[in-house]
Amino acid sequence: MGIENNECVIATTWNKEAIENIKQWITSLDLTLQPLFTILPSLINGKQTIILAPDGSKKGWKTAQIGNDLRDSFINKLKGFDYEDGSNPFAFVEVGYGEFGQKALRGNCTNRYGDVEYYEMEED
What we know:
Layout: E1 5-13, H1 16-27, E2 37-41, E3 48-52, H2 64-79, E4 90-98, E5 101-107
Antiparallel strand pairs: 1-3, 1-4, 2-3, 4-5
């Protein structure tokens, strides 16, 4: 059997050079893994978002480790873009959803606005 839960990684950047670097890395992966990635443009500001889709495996299956390893590799690749001050041109999050509920598992974004939720903030 196994638990139905999904994990994916979403990463957004304005940095065209970093996107090109990630594209090259994706093409170096096994052909069976490459279709799990998609790169989408934003409507404004020249940003692009890379999505690493869930691998489809269930928790407890041997194949689940393939997805775990791919997500770890992708996140490590993203962290490799860290600047000296600890910032990164990518904002990324790994999320899990399914029979475990939903949860942000890992990421590099911090709340810079205290306890105010982003959807409660008004535009100036």
